[in-house]
Amino acid sequence: MREHLRVVHGDATPEELAALVAVLAARRAAPAPEPRPKRESWRNPARGMRTRLAPGKSAWRMSALP
């Protein structure tokens, strides 16, 4: 049988190992949390920020616009 858990440092008691195994088993059995819904882009405050300037013929004029 393959070992799944090994103490590499220290001196764990059987009770401590049993507590660790119980916590790991409970964590594995718990359902995964649902992903948070993505925020709507219209509510994003960064949307009102200025966009990057594109180089071009009248880029200097666009740099003065808010």
Automatic annotation (TrEMBL):
Xref: InterPro entries: ACC_epsilon
Name of this chain's protein: Acyl-CoA carboxylase epsilon subunit
Species the sequence originates in: Nonomuraea typhae
Residue ranges, annotated region (Disordered): 28-66
